[in-house]
Write a structure and sequence with these properties.
This protein is mainly alpha-helical. It has a domain at 17-67. Helix content is 61%, strand content 0%. It contains 2 helices and no strands. Helix 1 (18-41) runs antiparallel to helix 2 (44-67). The protein is elongated.
Length: 79
């Protein structure tokens, strides 16, 4: 099960830290490897299941990135 999956009653209460993000990136790496392997074996159904999990993980990471302040926020080119 994905490290991103959180039951509905716990959503919004989980702390996002560097360790969680690293585990998620490692999980995505493994998912991509599995997807490629299943594609090579012609096992489309398993491939699609992993693609859905990867998509959910990527959306989660994008949401975190959008909500995080940029390290260059407020700086101009001249700074």
């Amino acid at each position: 099960m994905s490290v991103v999956f959180v039951p509905e009653k716990l959503r919004g209460k989980a702390e996002v830290n560097q360790e969680t993000l690293q585990r998620l990136l490692e999980e995505n790496d493994q998912l991509i490897r599995c997807i490629v392997e299943y594609q090579n074996k012609g096992r489309a159904e398993e491939c699609v299941q992993h693609q859905h999990t990867l998509h959910r993980n990527l959306i989660y990471l994008a949401t975190i990135a959008d909500a995080s302040p940029s390290p260059n926020a407020g700086k101009t080119v001249a700074d």
